[in-house]
Amino acid sequence: xxxxxxxxxxxxxYTRENAAxxxxxxxxxxxxxxxxxxxxxxxxxxxxxxxxxxxxxxxVEDAYEEQFEAQSKWLILLTIEQDNLLAALAWSSxxxxxxxxKLIAKLSWYWIIKSQYQTCKENHEKAISLSTQDxxxxxxxxxxxxxxxxxxxxxxxxxxxxxxxVKIWRRKKNPIELATTLAYLGYIHxxxxxxxxxxxxxxxxxLAIARKIDKPGIINHCLYYYCSSLVHSKQFVQAIPYVExxxxxxEKLNQPWGIMIARHLHSDCAxxxxxxxxxxxxxxxxxxxxxxxxxxxxxxxxxxGVAFALSAQSRWAKCIRLNAASVEKARSIGMNTRGLFxxxxxxxxxxxxxxxxxxxxxxxxxxxxxxxxxxxxxAVEYALDFEKD
Length: 389
Known about the structure:
With 389 residues, this protein is mainly α. It contains 21 helices and 2 strands. 79% of the residues lie in helices and 3% in strands.
């Protein structure tokens, strides 16, 4: 610490407080480059990279183990360390295949919550191609890739990967990982393959295992996929008590992903039961929550939800503008709001296409162009202003 303080005094290292309210020490880029060359000249680079990789792999492993119980804490820390994580990934991809695979296998949950879908997909494709053994890391890779593929509309492949992951976890007799994967697999079967019997059987098995383990975070994880299955099968009234339980437990755990999903599903239930004023309020809260936790997904999908509610209130212009802004935001990260869920596509047809028919082709085009031209942050402010338009 004394040496570090002297370097700070000489302005060779500077300090700043990070999001976790702790001190961060940084080096000027010119000094970093010079130091890097010295290290390479002394042939010390490999040893330092190994130490760096070992340290950040341990952080990733701790985060993975606590992803449900201490999610908020680890989201903050992993975001702060994102550049270090990418550096560890880049080096391990060339010099340590096993560490590279382990990093990818245990980072997918973070990338998905932070809407870094393309990063997740590219790394998983590479890691799966390098993984030759049906071990625990392979099972995690398959599950992580399966979740990520949902956001690209590849439900068939997602289910196949998760089925393979479940087989490995059953052999390994790991109840926590088995429950985690079964919960998502049940959701995939129910929502995308319309197989209610298989889907809910997996979901109920996952919940039963989670309750037996008695870990609140795992129970919460299984619960939000069960709630999603109910909502996607349009069982809105039946879903409401489960969704409300999910929101309470997610807030108690301070689990951002559970909170965002619960608020989104709560909004879906309001729309599904034709309470349009409440729908607008709930989806707006969903947008705020997405902004708070840095999720692009919940920002743009809940913005489209607000557009649905506005259409049902005959507020056509604002509806079309916000929908266009939402779709444009999704496209900017390689996604599409249509084609993900059958019931959501039906709402797009009913509320968005219905609004366009009401105003006519010329006005609809004008409002769409105005929505696309908005900065997304401006569109968020516009969506949250209940009195405007």
